[in-house]
Amino acid sequence: MYKLEEIQQNFKIIRTGDNVLDVGAAPGSWTLYTHRMLLKGNGTIIAVDLNPLNLNPVPPTVTAYVGDAFSKEIREKLVEHGPYDAIISDAAPMTTGNRSVDTSRSEWLAEQVVYLASEHLKPHGNLVLKIYQGGGQETVLKQMRSLFAKARAFKPKACRSDSFEVYLIGLDRNP
Ligand SMILES: C[S@@+](CC[C@H](N)C(=O)[O-])C[C@H]1O[C@@H](n2cnc3c(N)ncnc32)[C@H](O)[C@@H]1O
To answer: How far is CA 153 from CA 1, 24, 74, 107, 127, in A?
Structure first.
């Protein structure tokens, strides 16, 4: 089962009709799943990645941008299309094999995504982000607890047993 499917079954992150921001979207399986199974064609997805989506055709609900999600240029696009009902981020750094380098890059990405959520998520909106275990998970969860009614870590069964990734879920953004 897909990780996003499992997250959705447990937490109901996305509803039909939502405006969704997908960070670290390439090659596009979360985007496609959101379009087909969650929005059922009814809603909008802004998909951002350093690399292009590998979806042909790109579904009509999807607007894709190639670039750094945290750059000034992309932020301007995010403002144009926002605010969002849900932000989903599977963004991950290029791994180096050095666990402490990889986890600290993952923490940096996670903190940037929480900041994006503070800027672009609607009141009562939901957030999912990926972080590597050991990568400041508690620090990021603490930041999320000040932004959301509920925040917790979740490890989907679909994650390989040797994988050290975990997802942090923020539910019901404080108004
Ligand atoms: C595990 S892949 C995402 C897979 C995707 N969710 C899917 O279902 O196809 C992680 C992605 O994060 C992207 N990424 C990492 N840092 C990024 C950044 N600063 N801005 C945008 N995308 C980024 C990478 O380019 C990579 O494509």
So the answer is: 19, 19, 28, 14, 12
